[in-house]
Amino acid sequence: MSASLYTKRRITNVVAMVLSVTATGIGLLFLAWILWETLSQGITALKPQLFTKITAYREEGGLANAMVGSLILNILGILIATPIGVAAGTWLAEYSRRSRLGPTIRFLNDILLSAPSIVLGLFVYTIVVLPSKYLSNGNITFSGIAGGVALALIALPVIVRTTDEMLRLVPGTLREAALSLGVPQWKLTTQILIRAARSGIVTGVLLALARISGETAPLLFTAFGNNFMTFNPLDKMPSLPQVIYEYTKDPSPDINTLAWAGAFVLTMFVLALSLIARLAFRSKVSHD
Amino acid sequence: MHATASNAATPLERSAGTGRAAKDARNDLIFGGVLKACALIVLLSLIGAAGSTLWLGQDAFRTFGWGFLTSAAWDPSNDQYGALVPIMGTVGTAFIALLFAVPISFGIALFLTEIAPQWLRGPVASAIELLAGIPSIIYGMWGLFIFAPFVATHIKPWLMNNFSADPPDGQVSWLVQHVPFIAKFFSSEYPFFGAGVLTAGLVLAVMIIPFISSVMREVFQTVPTRLKESAYALGSSTWEVVWDIVVPYTRTAVIGGVFLGLGRALGETMAVAFVLGNTFKFSLSFLETGSSIASTIANQFGEAQGLQRSALMAIAFLLFVVTFIVLLIARLMLRRLATKEGN
Prior knowledge:
heterodimer, A: mainly alpha, MetI-like fold, 74% helix, 0% strand, flat, B: MetI-like fold, two-stranded antiparallel sheet, 14 helices, 2 strands
């Protein structure tokens, strides 16, 4: 009787362990599958023209304007989000101790972190794209600025969170030492604390950049897209994810292959960024 | 002595000192205010997103009333809109995603915390996290070109042969003849077409696995070692330790992680837009095509005008409110873990 119970328990255990290993295998299999397909399907279109020609020439074209557009949109997004995010994160970590607003905002920031990006895109459409008709003779104008604001809204919570966390890792003795020397708090914050947490904050900005470079949905009705090279942020602006979206839906296989090549470039860029961010972060942590 | 020394400072020095202090105090106030204003932007963007979609969606809510939620009509040519089909597509795909992602994530977390040798844990954990880094548009492409055809040739015909009332091989299975309603969930007009609720749900499952498994892994690590060691000392197997000690100890946070995954799955747009089919026909079947709230907005908002735009804003508002509530629950449940960890 007890032997059979023992056997039963052993079998349950072995089955559970095998299932657990299988689950991990499934996860890794999908990662390998997706990465392999992006590489193998896109590699035939990985030619110089991908980086030199624009999308207007379709089959004979490349993705140069989309890459430039993505670059501009991402830079805009990061430029808008970084100062606001670092400031907000600093407030959460350093100034919100005595107020009830602090924990609330920290909590809401975590929710914003996972909020559907398409709804944030609609929000930016409402506050940036729609009002543009008052500035431009009644035409509603999609623009790079609007796309940048949408991406900034997605990058913001990432930066707020990492800044907050990194500042809270800075030892309290550093604050006490500075304050006892009579340093005002704004000077303590800008010149000592932020400097001490700098590498962590940079990690947050890199992670935010990785996050926004793959975003498509909010760009569909803010930056809108464009088949030509444009450097003017007041104009409609193409982006790599959005061109991939268009080209994937295209019936022509050649255009699909271009989309795969774009997907390969984008995936490598995003994965490299997040790897760099993680490695930078890890080396910092091990130092402490 | 000390007091006299400080009193001995010349009036000039004293006024410079207080001037400096006053300036510092003023700067501190301004600096703190600016920081606080930036923090309030987080609050404002959440309120703004809810407010703007509600504001622009009010026409649709007013025109269709409560029927907006229960009507399956989505007909831009007649300006008739009902949110039922997108709501069902959103809920159905998220349900399937959780159905597959939760046990797999649990297995991965178990592997990474209890089974894997130490040297393997880091690399496997990083690899699983890479899944979260892949942009959703890439999941969409892969889903459309690779995974949907795979489902169409390998998974769907088998499911239809066994569970549907009109199987491709012509033989209605025993199960369908004896279990009522089951055929409703597995019917499809196009047996060899891969897009549909099931395919979208599976792609979503892969996308949310890294989120759920990393939360589970983190919370499993918070279980005190002495608790597990005592169970092992009493002769428990690894599985018994996990199921009877680790899971009960971390239950709230595990559920929080699942809700976090659910929140992600509900709002996911691009991947779903590719593999769900974007049709607006009411169907209970997991093998039929459909549409989700997010994919409907992505596909139609660019050209939408008037009442259609308002209807899209209205469903965006619904999506935002629902994901907000789901994420709220997730974060509340995860927060309890943080306090537990602190003790």
